[in-house]
Amino acid sequence: xxxxxxxxxxxxxxxxxxxxxxxLNCVRAFIxxxxxxxxxxxxxxxxxxxxxxxxQTVGDPTVATLIFITMLLTGFGIYDKCAQFAGAGTxxxxxxxxxxxxxxxxxxxxxxxxQGVGANMFKLAGSVILFGVFSAFIIALIKTTLIQLxxxx
Length: 153
Prior knowledge:
Layout: H1 2-16, H2 22-51, H3 59-75, H4 78-86, H5 88-91, H6 94-107, H7 113-148
Helix pairs in contact: 2-3, 3-6, 6-7
């Protein structure tokens, strides 16, 4: 009896569920994600032209600038509206990381700077940094081994 009710409810919910425009969502994500990357490329060109960064050294300040801009836009509520429109297009680039960090900080600011903002902000950032450093270590270990074996130069 209980199983039948669950099945009937599931069928009813499926019948009334709003159809998602998957293709439109993909196009929005592609366009907005691409625009974020265009902005990042423009920032890179700005740093290379005005501050004499090279292609090898411009990445770090560009990423930091993108994260800073995202945090400002999140603080003013602009980035969240853009994310609702674009979906994964704003979550996949590094701006998604900045948004997630500052959103956690804003959500828990009433608990204080240390226990609220600091502790909750670094719950996400800590795991991203940990896996990033660990992955870089593994890749460096593999590359060093391949160089020592003479497989790559």
